[in-house]
Amino acid sequence: RIAELNYDVDDFVEAGSVLLRFTDVEQRSALRQANAQLAEARARQTESEEEYRRAQELKQRGLGSQRDLDRALAARDSAIARVASAESTIETAQQQLDYTTVKAPYAGIVTKRFVERGETVAPGQPLMSGLSLEKLRVAVDLPQTVATEVRKNPQASVVTAEGRVAATDITLFPIADPVTNTFRVRLELPDGQFGLYPGMFVKAAFAIGEAERLLIPAQAVLRRSEVTAVYVVGEEGVRLRQVRTGQQFGEHIEILSGLADGEKVALDPVRAGMAAKVATG
């Protein structure tokens, strides 16, 4: 029977947290009894070892028989075996007690709760279900032509508002959907991707070719209303120049026009703007 129920649907749970406990009166009683039996067995082992030592001394002095020594040895070995048996009983009793506590195997969110406090449950009955926020995966359906290129070059990333997250592993299933003629691809994401949750729709990018891009640090881009520009640092000083940007790759952004390869840009647009005003006076 369930004695303690600590979480409900939509609760966040840390890995190792106690989700629920069953009544454990019988299990704790069995563990106490096993500990008492172990204490008794150890006491008997100590006594039998002392009796065996005395039997050895008497035999060496010619005051004891070989038969007495053999009996003492057998008693000692039997006591040692009883201690080992008692220790095994304790391990079993402790395991049975541990089974009365259900802990979260991973950090995540409780999605369903199938039981109530005080309810009696049967072996195999579901108790709770949850979703892990640490190990996420993305399922993508690709056209046949794209799937062929991905099979040759398995590289992909998931596009988020903060940038791109590279997939740690890519699985391309070998069977196409007969209706859509697409192939299912599964992308494994790195652990701890906050901001991504099960059930969300995201964009995925696949490397199906190579292209040269002009990238600059995203922090160098200045956006004012509909104008996107950067401060270019040259021999004539600092000048504001309008640019056209493309995709963002992590901390860098693509420049489609307005800059040439090799030109220098100011990483701090605010300070660069102040310097430009001072220079123009």
Quickly give the structural class.
alpha+beta
Known CATH architecture of the largest domain:
Orthogonal Bundle
Helix content: 25-40%
Detail the poorly predicted runs. none
Radius of gyration: 36 Å
Largest sheet: 4 strands, antiparallel
Distance between the terminal alpha carbons, to the nearest Å? 82 Å
- Secondary-structure element order, N to C: EEEHHEEEEHEEEEEEEEEEEEH
CATH topology assignment of the largest domain: Helix Hairpins
On the 0-100 scale, what is the average pLDDT? 88
Counted beta strands: 19
Question: How many domains, in number, for the residues?
Answer: 4
Task: Give a nutshell description of this structure.
Helix content is 32%, strand content 33%. It has 281 residues and is α+β, with helices and mostly antiparallel strands.
Structure description:
With 281 residues, the protein is α+β, with helices and mostly antiparallel strands. The protein has four domains: 1-22 and 106-132, no CATH class; 24-99, Helix Hairpins (Orthogonal Bundle), CATH 1.10.287; 137-206, Efflux pump adaptor protein, beta barrel domain (Elongation Factor Tu (Ef-tu), domain 3, Beta Barrel); 215-280, conserved putative lor/sdh protein from methanococcus maripaludis s2 fold (Beta Barrel). It has four helices and 19 strands. It has helices at 25-60, 66-98, 144-152, 269-280; strands at 2-5, 12-13, 18-22, 101-103, 108-113, 128-132, 137-143, 156-160, 163-166, 169-176, 182-188, 203-206, 215-217, 222-224, 227-234, 237-242, 244-249, 252-257, 264-265.
